[in-house]
Design brief:
alpha/beta, Rossmann fold, 2 domains, eight-stranded mixed beta sheet, two-stranded antiparallel ribbon, 12 helices, 37% helix, 25% strand
Length: 307
């Protein structure tokens, strides 16, 4: 057994939200006989190990900490009813990939494909193959879950997924870690520029500008001072900028679902991007995601996270 410990209460909120959407999605699309695929690009081991405190006065038992294994996104997706027709699980780590392979003998009647490799490379290769290249002529539809361990989703991968016109993409964006990389002064970016280009595309430079007062600055000898370019957006403004960037690729992008790791600390933003341009597909996504944001939004996030 390979232990895979990560996240916190917000992780269950994220998984609950995506699982609800998957259930709505398969129920709606199975009625019209679509061939459905679920792709988990950072599948891990299929489970999540946590430590939990139990016992106490109200339970009539000594307080102790126990280990508990919970279903991860891959196992939750397999349990969705009505089911998907195909599952693709991508995992780069060899040990996690081996643990993930245990899912196959437990579900021999299900078409499960486990692909070892770097998620961006695998995804871009997949969407260049059948049935995804058929776009509007395809009877195939699918949901992709991008839940990276860090800043590991390339903007080019999002463009490739959006170009299929058949995928709904849930993207857990690490907003807090990204903001940390965006230095207040542009000069502070330094060697991080290539990483930010990969993550956000070159347009992230729009987030910096020269304040009017900087233009007028002069030194002690009354000589003009080279003005500094500063990041001019807050976390919330950055989140909306990112949504607008995603809207240039996807036909519909949901309002982000904030995931909190502390009462005032938003670590992640969960987006849904719909690549299908058809009005019925967009209407369905909007209907489902309204429930997701209502039941798993900020108030629910505070309550379920114990914040």
């Amino acid at each position: 057994m390979v232990e895979h410990s990560f996240g916190g209460p917000w992780t269950e909120i994220k998984l609950d939200a995506v699982e609800y959407y998957l259930q709505c999605y398969t129920k709606a699309l199975k009625r019209v006989k679509f061939d459905l695929t679920y792709i988990d690009a950072f599948a891990g081991t299929g489970t999540r190990d946590i430590e939990k405190r139990v016992g106490g006065l109200f339970e009539g038992a000594p307080i102790e900490t126990i280990k508990q294994t919970l279903a991860g996104s891959a196992r939750r997706a397999i349990a969705v009813r009505p089911p998907f027709d195909h599952f693709v699980f991508i995992e780069k780590d060899d040990l996690r990939c081996s643990a993930l392979a245990e899912i196959q003998p437990e579900n021999t009647a299900i078409d499960i494909r486990i692909i070892p490799g770097e998620a961006n490379e695998v995804l871009r290769k997949l969407v260049g193959e059948q049935p995804w290249v058929r776009k509007d002529n395809s009877n195939s539809r699918g949901v992709v879950f991008l839940d990276p361990y860090a800043l590991h989703v390339d903007w080019e991968t999002l463009i490739a997924l959006a170009s299929t016109r058949v995928f709904d993409v849930w993207y857990l964006f690490p907003i807090r870690d990204t903001i940390r990389q965006l230095a207040h002064n542009f000069e502070g970016i330094g060697p991080k520029e290539p990483m930010l280009d990969r993550l956000l595309g070159p347009e992230w430079r729009e987030l910096y500008s020269i304040a009017p007062e900087e233009i007028l600055k002069r030194d002690l000898f009354d000589q003009p001072v080279e003005p500094e370019m500063r990041r001019v957006v807050s976390v919330r403004q950055f989140e909306q900028w990112l949504k607008q960037r995603l809207e240039k690729e996807f036909k519909f992008v949901s309002e982000p679902l904030p995931l909190l790791t502390a009462p005032t600390r938003q670590a992640f933003s969960l987006f849904l991007g719909v690549s299908n341009p058809s009005r019925p597909a967009i209407d369905l996504a909007q209907k489902f995601v309204r429930y997701v944001n209502k039941n798993f939004g900020p108030e629910a996030s505070h309550r379920k996270s114990g914040l």
